[in-house]
Amino acid sequence: MSLQMLLYITLSLWAMRPMAFAVRLSKPNCQEKCGNVTIPYLFGIGLECSANSSFTVSCRNITNPETPFLSSLNLEVLDISMDYSTITLNQPVSPLNCSLEQKGVYLGKSLSGTPFIFSRLYSVLAVLGCNNVVTLLSNGTTTAGGCVAICGYGSNSNDSGCNGVNCCKANIPLGFQAPQVIYRVIDSNNNNSSCGYAFLVDQNWLQNDYRKYTGLRDVNPFDKSFVKAPVVLEWRFPTRSSTGLYCEYRGPGPYYSGWDDQPDYDSLLRQCHCREGFEGNPYVDEGCQDIDECSNSNLNFCQGGCTNTVGFYRCSRSRVKMIFIGFGAGLGALLLLVGPWWSYRVIRKRIKSKRKQKFFKRNGGLLLEQQLSSTQNGVEKTNKLFNSKELEQATDHFNVNRILGRGGQGTVYKGMMSDGRIVAVKKSQKIDEDDLEVFINEVVILSQINHRNVVKLLGCCLETEVPLLVYEFIPNGTLFQHIHEASEEFPLSWEARLRIATEVASAISYLHSAAAVPIYHRDIKSTNILLDDK
């Protein structure tokens, strides 16, 4: 084979080589992984492979696969990200000791004297447990945040966002290195030796995994197996002269990493990053390599040909034309969606309307309208029939937090009407068809009752699955509560007790003798006697 032919084949093979080199993350001749964790430089397994002792990682043979530990803090390494300049460590967590007096405690290890800070973007202060007030301190004296966790049990405690029920969270300050808190218990009846946990933690863990460590339905909501949680740190370095760490050109031409100033923290502290369009490790020679956006359709917006350029790419077709094509396609898709969506809304509205009509008839609505329109009853129709939408809005869709009480005949909710009136909305039990006429007659009769010591029925709603009765709201609870839970704000003096008894007797006398149709209560007891603000 001639020399010219050999040279031609060699040059052809060189021209067809991949444009993207394998990105090297660690120093040459250094182990790049420990177990399942990649160890990029500045970090390294052993002092000779790391930037300095703060970034040295030891690979321990305590599990299979091996487990990496950050030697300077003696904590397990879960992840290292060069893109975000973060390291995630598995830190120990200890329970708080109950105390009604304020106590101070350090959370885990201090980062003072290291290039690491607790990440304000990815880590938060978390408090698991309840009836705890926890305050985060900055520099040992300055209040930097905190939160209060209250107790919640049963269905009302399903707070998956850690927003104050059995779990609360607070942001941490910039440049935070010494995690110290003061705390106290606000429940004097708590005799437990453990009152929960306070610790810095990765926000993702708090959002997805914390509930498996809190038995929210148990009296003591703590799991003794909970001993560790992940926390995210960032690293910074000051000047090239003091540490030997700095950002500089790494490779030919524009393959370089740049300064990342943090003016909101300290303009002298830096991080290195590869420029947009490059990837790799900016702390090693030729560590930032060009990304070939044309090799992956998810990395470019070209609809025709794609040509990779240094740090970016170029599409063969006009970008303006692509915009018009995309706009036209999007508009066409929108028009195709509008028709079915509009039809769905119309059909759904019609179904809801028919459903309301069905419930209205089943609950005796036609009979009630007939009774209300009858002049012999002397009952005005205005404000007697409420619609379901306004009562749903008034009770916040019958929120459990609006429940005033439950009884054998239904559940009572507190509501606020659009005109500002406070009402009590009673969701009745389902009524048998045989009892409909009796129920409607009672509604009509009760609507005519007008006595200052009898709770007034304002109206009803019959277009729901079960009837809703709307009463005036009596704000001061029941007589039973004031007898058995006496308070200084509302003392039950003998004068007040005699007045209550007199007014109850007056109401009963009116119902028995003065009402157009005699009404017999048949269940007079302290829980059925409501007290107003007087």
Automatic annotation (TrEMBL):
**Signal peptide from the UniProt entry:** 1-22
SMART domains, alphabetized: S_TKc
Task: Name the chain's protein.
Answer: Wall-associated receptor kinase-like 13
Query: What Pfam families is this protein classified in?
Result: GUB_WAK_bind, Pkinase, WAK
Catalyzed reactions: L-threonyl-[protein] + ATP = O-phospho-L-threonyl-[protein] + ADP + H(+); L-seryl-[protein] + ATP = O-phospho-L-seryl-[protein] + ADP + H(+)
Q: Which UniProt keywords apply?
A: ATP-binding, Disulfide bond, Glycoprotein, Kinase, Membrane, Nucleotide-binding, Serine/threonine-protein kinase, Signal, Transferase, Transmembrane, Transmembrane helix
Q: What superkingdom does the record give?
A: Eukaryota
Which sequence ranges are marked TM in the entry? 322-344
Q: Where in the cell is it found?
A: Membrane
- Matching PANTHER family: WALL-ASSOCIATED RECEPTOR KINASE-LIKE 10-RELATED (PTHR27005:SF515), WALL-ASSOCIATED RECEPTOR KINASE-LIKE 21 (PTHR27005)
The species this protein was found in: Abeliophyllum distichum
Which GO cellular component terms, listed alphabetically, does the Swiss-Prot or TrEMBL entry include? Answer: membrane
> Which InterPro entries did the record assign?
EGF_Ca-bd_CS, Kinase-like_dom_sf, Prot_kinase_dom, Ser/Thr_kinase_AS, WAK, WAK-like, WAK_GUB
Q: Which topology term describes how it sits in the membrane? A: Single-pass type I membrane protein
Is Transmembrane helix tagged as a keyword? yes
- GO MF terms held by the record: ATP binding; protein serine/threonine kinase activity
